[in-house]
Amino acid sequence: MxxxxxxxxxxKDTTEDKYRIAATIAFIVVIVGIGVxxxxxxxxxxxxxxxxxxxxxxxxxxxxxVVHVSIYTQQPDRAQLLITELQNAFKDSNVWIMExxxxxxxxxxxxxxxxxxxxxxxxxxHPQSVGDFMFIEWPKxxxxxxxxxxxSALMRTDVTSNKMAQLLHSKILQTYxxxxxxxxxxxxxxxxxxxxxxxxxxxxxxxxxxxxTNAKWNVVMAAQTYIEPFLAQISDISSYTVRTQWKYRVALxxxxxxxxxxxxxxRHYALQESALPHLLTSIAQNLSASITDKPVINLVVYIPPCxxxxxxxxxxxxxxxxxxxxxxxxxxxxxxFIIANPPERVCMAYMxxxxxxxxxxxxxxxxxxxxxxxxxxxxxxxEVQVSGVKTVDIEQLAPRRWEYESYIRRSAIRHxxxxxxxLQSLIKLLDQISYIVIDDQVGTAITKSHSDILAAKAALLExxxxxxxxxxxxxxxxxxxxxxxxxxxxxxYFPDEQKYAIYIPLFLPVxxxxxxxxxxxxxxxxxxxxxxxx
Length: 534
Prior knowledge:
Shape: flat
Largest sheet: 6 strands, mixed
Radius of gyration: 37 Å
Transmembrane segments: 21-40, 500-521
Helix content: 40-55%
Structural class: alpha/beta
Keywords: Endoplasmic reticulum, Glycoprotein, GPI-anchor biosynthesis, Membrane, Transmembrane, Transmembrane helix
Order of helices and strands: HHEHEHEEEHHEEHEEEHEEEEHEHEHHHH
Number of strands: 16
Number of helices: 14
Low-confidence stretches: 1-6
Protein name: GPI transamidase component PIG-S-like isoform X2
Family: Belongs to the PIGS family.
Distance between the termini: 25 Å
Main location: endoplasmic reticulum
């Protein structure tokens, strides 16, 4: 009887140990096998896989651009000599891959009595594509080289290859601007921003005292006649929305100095060049017609009241800066400013205390100045002067073809360079800060931008300028969208150190029973092992 009673406690202890071991293992499995992985998963920063190494290697493959240049001379040997010398001049270029082509003389060329007729015949025999250029020899030429409004230049029979190379570098290719874009040296000068995909062009007419200066102008029709057709011709890079507005009682905060002269009015007013930035600051806050997230190009026409008219701009040497009867200036990238002085007869009536005389603002004069300002603000026009080279004046609303295609080429290179720098900066930032979220939207933007950069580089090498421009623009937009995406800031101020500082006090009390269970389980197993030993 005593044996039976001593066995019962043993069986009871064994059963309790089994339950205790099972509960301990279940507790450990729930905490370690389910709780820890779930915590790890929910606290892990989501990051899409990116082509980081490929993006960082973008700088290893510089931007190269193929340019086709044709040369026509009456003597084939001379054309071949010029091509050989030009190839030597461009062989060390880091950007341009120049492909020169000799155009052989043909029978119909003798029938051309004007340069335009000769160019037309050459284009029929040798059609050009976007970005091409042609030198045409014309013996009856005063200047060494004459740049036309198309993709050609007339050259004299004695022009040298050095002069032709100088023209290509300074005007057609604008190498100095491209070097500024690609250079990492800050001493190269101030770099303008890459062209944006959309712009608002706001034409503002300021008439501070309409009761004194009764100016009339259909500025809407003027914009539709001059500005909108011009912008439509250059819409390959950016889209433009034109708006017009009249502003009254806008004060011109500048010190004006009265200057005596020999006109009927007997005086005019001087606006110092040094005061122009302050002038723009004083009127800028009154120009916004509506809130927009697009960059704005302001084109301002200021009509001074007769009490301070005519108004002219003077430099620091007290010299008047009026050119061709126009007082105007630009301030990139803000916009342009034109002073439209009232006619003398209107101000004479004012000085004689007569009723305000109605007059109409000269549309053609102001719009021509505005078009010139737009070309400079958009960085289309080439201001470099080359000795012995003359440029044909523009007689149409569209810019010169070679000038605009140079702008397309330069914009493509700028977009590629800017997008590459943006992506590389973003990748370096993401590698340094591991807790920045990279969601699918950002990952798609970065990946598409990278692929478009490679495609744009390939298109430049294949002489597909318009295609390269479109791809480069798309790469630029995608890189900007990825870089400035708001989701990148989601956990920027919640680093890993702060995460551990929050979660360790929370999970440490839970882990103490787990560690105790491990210790108890170890002791039970040791005791079981001793009981089994003989």
